[in-house]
Specification:
The chain is mainly alpha-helical. The protein has ten helices and no strands.
Amino acid sequence: MDMYIIEKNMKDRNKVIIDLFRERRTYQEIGDMFGISRERVRQILKKYVPDEIKERLLEVKKRTMYKHAEMVERLLERESKLKRGCIKCGKPITIFNRDMCRTCYSKWAYYNLPGRKARCMAAAKKWCKEHPEAAKKINNRAALRWYHKNKDKAMTYQKKYIANLKLDKKRYDHYKKGMSIRNRINYYKKKDDKEKLYHWQDKLDNWKKNKIV
């Protein structure tokens, strides 16, 4: 009687295992439900539904082959993009961001992606507050670069600025004093006279502090 009950229970369990397998459950999931290993699940299924196991294996093989083919296509595309380079500047690409190099992509994102410009501006302001000296150097470098690229524009702006200064005598005298100090500093830089250079740099600092607004 006990053997009959055990056999009946085993048959019921095997039926449930087959149903779960047909529901696309994995061997591991079925084994965890009944407290048996996934190898034992495979053995049971092989005994009762060997054809279905073969079909499942063929499906898996097809899926992996399809994935492999997709990967090969992607790799070929990446190689062609690497050879072609950036769309805008032609430099070699290391990270694939819309077929652009890192610098071109950052410029594109700054103007085109929503919220990027505001976030960049906020981060730049925060960094400038934390590192004022480095920020000043960067600004000076950027100004020089712009001046060398747009000399005609710079000259017109300078002429306008001086014309406005001449209207206010105090401001104009202050500006002239600053220019003479800067000329002295450049002269002593060329001469490599450190004592006089430090002296005139101190004067320039004092001139900046007493700036007329």
